[in-house]
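Quick one: structure for this chain?
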Amino acid sequence: MTLTSSRFVGYEQDRGIVQFLMQDGSKEIACAISTSAMDYLERGPQTKPEQREAQFTRLRDRIEAQAASKYRATEFEGTPPGIVLRSIDFRG
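Got it. Here's what it folds into:
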């Protein structure tokens, strides 16, 4: 169970999340990170909606590493099951 980078899906302003996909072999894994978690990682002012994709790109390595960690721990949420990252996932 090794996840690899796949693609950015999009920013959902109404839900306050950025969606992205990762790959486990040929299987796509739906993932999301809260915008508050991304702002927490940058420890700066809140990012503007039109800058969320660029912010995701800057933080991609850290975000995907944490998603892979939750995947290995089988910490899935939702239907269909996916990986959801929040600020608390990056503390500690």
